[in-house]
Structure formats: C-alpha cells, structure tokens
Amino acid sequence: MKLSSDSFRDGGAIPAQNAFAALDASGRQVGLAANRNPQLAWRDVPAGTESLVLLCMDGDAPQDESDVNRAGRMLPASLPRGDFFHWSLVDIPPGLQAIAEGALADGVTARGKPGPDVLLDGMPLRQGVNDYSAWFSADPAMAGDYYGYDGPCPPFNDERVHHYIFRIYALDIPRLTLGARFGCADVLNAIYGHIIDEAQLIGTYTLNPALAVKPRRSRKKIA
Q: Are 149 and 130 in contact (CB under 8 A)?
C-alpha cells in the first residue's frame, strides 16, 4: 500500500491550517489554528482487505512535562520522548480511497468534537478519543472527550522538531471490537493479528520560532 497527501509532502512540514496551533504573522506568538484534517489518499490496497484503520501520532512528545510551554525554559532535544496520539479512524471500507482536507475536522472545538460515530461521504465510521482528552482534563474551559482529529500543537519551547506519523492499516476483519469510548492504544491492541499490510506518511511541525520553516504542499496525485 501507499499513503500520500496533497496537504504536505512526505518528510516535509505540515501546513498551519492542519495544526491545532500556529505562529502568528510575526512568527513570535502562538494562537489557535484552523485545525483541518489533512487530505490523505491511499492506493494498492491488498486483496482480502475487509476494512482500513488510520492513525496519527506524534512520536516526539516530551515525557517530562514540567517545563512544557514555560517562558524562559527550553526543552532540550535530548529529553526522553513518547507518543501523543492525534487521531484514530476505524471501520474504513476498502473501497474508500481518500479523505478530503477538512472533511472530519475544521476548527478547534472546545471540550472536543462528538464521537465515536461519524459519517464520511455517507459512510458510517468510528473515531476514537485523542490525547488532548487527557491533556486538557484539568482545564475547566477545555476539558472533555476529544474525538477524531486534532492537529499538532508541540511546545513552543521545544528544541526538537516534532514528527507526525500518519499510518494506514489494511485488516482482514470488517469491524473492530472496541468499547463505546476508545483511544489509539485500544485500536492498536484490537488490530493485532489482523494486519495484512500498512503504509505511512510523516510530516513535521514546530512552534519554536527558531526552528520554524515554511511548508511546501505535496504535488503527488493518486495514479
């Protein structure tokens, strides 16, 4: 299988419109962004595929959060890192070949978008909660279950550019056995032993003004 995007190129910077937060025009202040899910498309789905699963994760999230977004402090690139999950979409029918930009997320929704059930092009799918649910749990204005896609918002004081992995799995079962409220870790457990094939696409993002670069949109098309 192959996974591609018209929103960004593999290994390149993710555009601000696909992020949860972005630098302003001055390049110094951080604010909420358009938070649109990127366009994604896939091909060469193997025979025997009964459904597809799509995940997005940041593998560069600092494990020690004590200095995250603290003015006057920096997070060294050598700081231990872990996963922060941004999206899980399951029960994708094998005949579906793409998701349009903004089709499942368009704007920041305080307290999170509803879920898990969602319609895409008239097809019923399910989305899990992402890790903003835990991140905002102590914030009365933002606390809630964040279903579906919510984009990058790495610490502005991080010396490491973050890498966002979009990964699609072809499965040999039509529907995953999951609870009413599930997260990405639950999805990874549920797909174990059912993966026929997989593909991934990686984009980068930073809110550190010293590291920020202007992203280039992908020109790749599905053949």
A: yes
pLDDT at 106 over 60: yes
**Statement: the pTM of the whole predicted model exceeds 0.90:** yes
Separation CA 140–CA 58 (nearest Å): 25
Distances (CA, A) of 95 to 49, 80, 90, 103, 111: 10, 40, 14, 17, 33
Which residues, listed in sequence order, are joined to residue 43 by a DSSP beta bridge? 2
Contact between 133 and 146 (Cβ < 8 Å) = yes
pLDDT of 61: 97
Half-sphere exposure for 73 (CA within 13 Å, toward CB): 8
Separation of alpha carbons 126 and 116, rounded Å? 5
Q: How confident is the model at residue 29 (pLDDT cuts 50, 70, 90)?
A: confident
Residue 219 has pLDDT above 70, yes or no: no
- Which contacts (CB < 8 Å, 24+ apart) does range 122-126 have? 123/93, 123/96, 124/91, 125/89, 125/90, 125/91, 125/92, 126/89, 126/90, 126/91, 126/178
